[in-house]
Amino acid sequence: MNCIAFIQTKGGQATKASLEAAGFAVGIGQTVAVVSGELNGDGGLGAVGITRVLQGAGDLDDSQLGRLVSAAADQEGATVVVCAQDHLGKAIAGRVAVRLGAGLIAGVTVAPEGESYTRNVFSGKASAQITGSTDRLVITTTPNAIGMPAASDGTASVEAFNTDLGERKVNILEAAAPSTGGRAPLPEAELVVSAGRGMKGPENWGLIEDLADAVGATTACSRPVSDIGWRPHHEHVGQTGIAIRPNLYIAIGISGAIQHLAGVNGSKVIVVINKDPEAPFFKAADYGIVGDAFDVVPKLTEAFKAL
Amino acid sequence: MEFLVCISKAPDTTTRIAFTDGDTRFNEEGVQFIVNPYDEWYALVRALEIVEAQGGKVVIAAVGGADCDPILRKALAIGAHEAVRIDVQPQDATQVAAEIAAYAKGQTFDAILCGKETIDHNSSAVPAMLAEHLDVPCIALATSLDYVDGKAVMTRETANGIEKISVHGPLVLSAAKGMAEQRIPNMRGIMAARTKPLQVLAAQGAAPGTSIQRFALPAEKAGVKLVDAENPAELVRLLREEAKVI
Ligand SMILES: Cc1cc2nc3c(=O)[nH]c(=O)nc-3n(C[C@H](O)[C@H](O)[C@H](O)COP(=O)(O)OP(=O)(O)OC[C@H]3O[C@@H](n4cnc5c(N)ncnc54)[C@H](O)[C@@H]3O)c2cc1C
Ligand SMILES: Nc1ncnc2c1ncn2[C@@H]1O[C@H](COP(=O)(O)O)[C@@H](O)[C@H]1O
C-alpha cells in the first residue's frame, strides 16, 4: 500500500506530532512525505523510516495545502494519507478527504493493526474501532498517543514538488508568540501542571507557575477558573476546553468533575493534590496527596528542584 | 450579514456512556441530549452578537432525524431566526458535510460557523470538509470573529503562535473557546421559538466514508496510590522510578 504523510515543520524540522504521523504511515505501507516550505536537510524524516520527501511551496493557506497533499497522493498512487490531528491537521485533513473522495478517520490513538483503526469517542469516555468504506482513506493521529517510531539511521531524499495550488485567500495580519511562551502547546505537552478553584484566587498562581517551572510543564486550569478570568481561556482543559494527553498531569485543587475528566483522561499518569479525601478526582488518579495545596505545592516544587 | 450555524445534537456532558447490540451502538436509553456546547456557546452566540450589532439573520442547520427538533428549538430560543433540518440519520462527518454543502450551495451566506468538534465523535472534521465542498477558506479553531470594513477578521492559535487573520468573501470557521460566552434562553425566547420556521429538507443521499465496527469502554484504573502530605519527595521518586514519566 502506498501512503502519503503530510508533515508540518517548525524551523525546517518536522514537528514531533508529524514524526508520529510519519511513523504511523510507515507502519501501513511505503510512505512518501510531503512538506510545505523550508526544510533543514531531511527535517528528521529519514530517522523515522521515510526515504523520499516531496517539497512544495511555502506560505500556503489551508486550501492550498489541501491541494498540495491531494496532488501528491495522486502522483504517488497513495491510498492512505496520514497527518497529525493538530491545529493544521484539523484545517486540512477534511479538505484532502473531500478532494480524494476518501473517508476520514480522525484522531487515531493506536498504532495500525489491520483494516480497523482505533480512536477515542465521547471525549475519551470510550473508544471505537472504525473502518473505511472508500477506496482511499485519510487518517489523522492524535499527538502524543501512538508514540515516536523507533529511530533508524536512514536519510530521506528531498525533491521539489510543484503543482497548481490556486490562490491564497487567508491573509495573516499579525502573528504573536504562542500563549504558552516557550512551553509546549497544551495539546502536545508531555508534562502539565493544572489547578482549579481550590487555589482561591489568581494571586496564588505563582505557586502553580513555580511548580510548572520546576517540572518543565505547561500550565492548565479547570473551566470555572478561566470563566472567572483567573487564568486565560487557552488554559481551560476538559470537555469544553482543550483535550490533552500528557505523560504526566498534576491536578491541584480540582474536584474532578466528569466534564473535567473528559479532557484529561488520556493522560498516562495522573497526580491529584486535594485537601478533600472524598474528591472524585482521586478515583481517576494514579498518585494522590491529601493535603492543603498551600502547604504541599511549595514542598513538591522543592522536591522537583532537588532532582 | 447572513450566517449559517451548524448545530449537532450531543449527549449531555454528564452522561454515563454505555453501548448495546454487542457494543456496536450507543445506548441512548435515559440519555439527555443537548446542543453540542461548542455549536451553542461559541458559534451560535457569536453569530447572534454580530447580527444584533449589524443586522441580518442567523439560520441554523442540523443533519439528523426528528430527534434533533428539540435541540433546534433550543437554538431558536437562544435567538436563531430560522432552522433547517436535513432529514437523515448521519453515519459520519463525510455524510454530514456533503449534506450541509448541498444545502448551502443554493444559498448565500457570509459565513458558516461550526463548533470545533462534536463532543460525542470528537472528529473536528466537518468544517474543513464543508469548506472544500464550497471552495472557501476554513479557519479551524478560531477564537474570535469580527467584521471590519466588510472583511472577516479572526484570531486562532497555531503551533507557531497566535495569528490574526482576515478573509475576504465567504468562509467556514470552527469556533473554540474565547469566541463568545454561553447565553441562557429567556421565557420570551422560548415562546418565540415555537413559531419560528423549522424547515425539513430531504437528504441528497450522500454516502458516508467510514463505519464504526465496535465501541469499547476504557480499562478501569488500578486505584490511587496515596503519598503522605509531609513527604512530597516520595511522590517525585515514584514518578521517576515507578511511573517513569519524569
Ligand atoms: C456543559 C458543561 C461543560 C463543562 N466543561 C468543563 C470543562 O471542559 N472543564 C472543566 O474543568 N470543567 C467543566 N465544567 C465544569 C465542571 O462541571 C466543574 O464545575 C468544574 O470542573 C469544577 O472546577 P474546580 O474543580 O476547579 O472547582 P470545584 O469543583 O469548586 O473544586 C475545587 C476543589 O479544590 C479543593 N480544594 C479547595 N481548597 C483546597 C486547598 N487549599 N488545597 C487543596 N485542594 C483544595 C476542593 O476540595 C475541591 O475538590 C463543565 C460543566 C458543564 C455543565
Ligand atoms: N449532524 C450534524 N448536523 C449539523 N452540524 C453538524 C453535525 N455534525 C457535526 N456538525 C458540525 O460540525 C462541527 C464539528 O463536528 P465533528 O467534525 O463531528 O467533530 C460541529 O461542532 C457542528 O458545528
Notes on the protein architecture:
Chain A is α/β, with parallel strands linked by helices. Chain A folds into two domains: 2-160, Rossmann fold (3-Layer(aba) Sandwich), CATH 3.40.50.620; 186-306, Rossmann fold. Chain A is built from seven helices and 17 strands. In chain A, helix 2 (62-76) packs across helix 3 (87-100) and helix 4 runs parallel beside helix 7 (293-305). Chain A starts with a strand and ends with a helix. The mean pLDDT of chain A is 96. By secondary structure, chain B is α/β, with parallel strands linked by helices. Chain B has one domain: HUPs (Rossmann fold, 3-Layer(aba) Sandwich), CATH 3.40.50. Chain B is globular and about 60 Å long. Classes of the chains: A alpha/beta (307), B alpha/beta (246). Chains A and B meet through helix 2, helix 3, strand 7, strand 9 and strand 12 of A and helix 1, helix 3, helix 4, strand 9 and strand 10 of B. The structure holds flavin-adenine dinucleotide and adenosine monophosphate (AMP).
List segments of chain B where confidence is low: pLDDT < 50 over at least 5 consecutive residues.
Answer: none
Number of helices of chain B: 6
Specify Rg of chain B, calculated over alpha carbons: 21 Å
Shape of chain A: elongated
How would you classify the quaternary structure?
heterodimer
Percentage of residues assigned to helices of chain A: 10-25%
Short description, anyone?
Chain A is an alpha/beta fold and 307 residues long.
Which characteristics define this entry?
heterodimer, A: 307 residues, alpha/beta, Rossmann fold, 2 domains, 7-stranded parallel beta sheet, 5-stranded parallel beta sheet, 25% helix, B: 246 residues, 9-stranded mixed beta sheet, two-stranded antiparallel sheet, 32% strand, binds flavin-adenine dinucleotide, binds adenosine monophosphate
SSE topology:
The complex is a heterodimer of chains A (307) and B (246).
Chain A: E1 2-6, E2 9-10, E3 13-14, H1 16-26, E4 30-36, E5 52-56, H2 62-76, E6 80-84, H3 87-100, E7 103-108, E8 117-121, E9 126-132, E10 137-141, E11 157-160, E12 170-176, E13 191-195, H4 205-215, E14 218-221, H5 223-227, E15 248-252, H6 258-264, E16 269-274, E17 287-290, H7 293-305
Parallel strand pairs in A: 1-4, 1-6, 4-5, 5-11, 6-10, 7-10, 13-14, 13-15, 15-16, 16-17
Antiparallel strand pairs in A: 2-3, 8-9
Helix pairs in contact in A: 2-3, 4-7
Chain B: E1 2-6, E2 9-11, E3 19-20, E4 25-26, E5 33-35, H1 37-54, E6 57-63, H2 69-78, E7 82-87, H3 93-105, E8 111-115, H4 126-134, E9 138-148, E10 151-158, E11 161-167, E12 171-175, H5 187-193, E13 198-202, E14 210-216, E15 225-226, H6 232-241
Parallel strand pairs in B: 1-6, 1-8, 6-7, 7-13, 8-12, 9-12
Antiparallel strand pairs in B: 2-5, 3-4, 9-10, 10-11
Helix pairs in contact in B: 2-5, 3-4
